[in-house]
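anyone seen this seq b4? input:
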Amino acid sequence: MTTASDFTASLPSADRTAYGRNARRRVPRSQHERFEAGPERPDPIGVIERQSATRVPELVPIRYARMLESPFRFYRGAASIMATDLGPLPNSGLTVQLCGDAHLLNFRLLASPERHLVFDINDFDETLPGPFEWDVKRLAASFAIAGRANGFPVKDQDEAVLTCVRSYRQRIREFAGMRTLDIWYAQDDADQLRNLFASSMSKEARRRTAGATARARTRTYLQAVEKLTRVTAEGRRIAPDPPLITPLQDLLTDPSDDAQEKELQGLLEDYAHTLSSERRRLLRHYRLVDMARKVVGVGSVGTRCWIMLLLGRDDNDPLLLQAKEAGESVLAVQTGGATYDNQGRRVVSGQRLIQTTSDIFLGWTHVLGIDGRERDFYVRQLRDWKGIARPETMDPDLLRLFGQLCGASLARAHARSGDPVAIAAYLGGSDRFDRALTVFAQAYADQNERDFETLGAAARSGRVRTESL
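predicted toks r here
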């Protein structure tokens, strides 16, 4: 798919700057503060229900229950609603590879293949090319919503949003002056970031960030194996915890017929062909011994997600892979979409383009499921050095600092896939865009609360069924 950034990247820098400034004249930065739900806005519950119709029916009530825990949890599961809201708004026309669901909990500490701890985007289920500001708006609103959840006054909520958007704008301007390869190699090393921000952090903030990086290094695949598996008479196997973790055998319509099981095991063989040759060779050192369906996240609950236990030389040489169903991006309707032969490939291609360091086992496949339907999946390791933020424990200063990190990280992702020169020219050196998105974030946080209440009413009326676990 050819995008505006593909066109501008071949132009001289002065022309790329002019392109960005022309986009600003067409859609002034101040226009981005506007959000008002009109009478033509789709029913938000209907939007969620259409998603749910393609998911595992018995798991959908768990999704609704998780979304009803708080407005912030609702927001995490409502990427499809926000996509329908962003689509009709004026946009810059400056295209990047969007994360598609850039809320603050989708930024975290990750391990690079070189075993460095980096800060980066983690979730790419909705990735697709689109206007750069859609990601920035989803991220900005998430900080306003998180601040409200913590009981912060509006001033502190706004400061977190401003800091996040300012960080995005300033780093895009830095990338606009950099060589192309230097942009591609740019990486947010966790230890370097902690040292860089140490002087601006309180003693408590320094203590907590040091603890977070230390904990991330303990969240290895071996910890996941310890938590999710057990040693049985047949050897190491996945530990059942239905309905959150359900063994494959318990889901087969006819457990005595191994045809269905072989179909799913074929998932691994087809997936291996999407890996580079040296990683296929590495994978051959393992054998598949068990599979189970796993419930994951908030917005993803109900999608088909399999965990696969592979063993190398013995029970103490494990590998856990996760194969997650990949459907059409929630942004596809709003952007006109792009044609992909496999939605798992869409996710993987977007991740490799945006993320500075991707899992060595990242790939995709297509499989006939136990229900007789064909679906796309993407595959990766289940867990490897992941540090997840806990915004509910943050004070205003720490939330601002986290906003600064997220904004800068998003800018790096967009600079890799888009045209940082044109985007920087559009944003300019003033804080007009920052202030506009602060207004937008508060307006959208209001809308999110109304939608949250609407889902609650739907649950009370019986329109949707919930099941808490």
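The mean pLDDT is 90. The longest helix spans residues 432-461. kinda curious what u guys think
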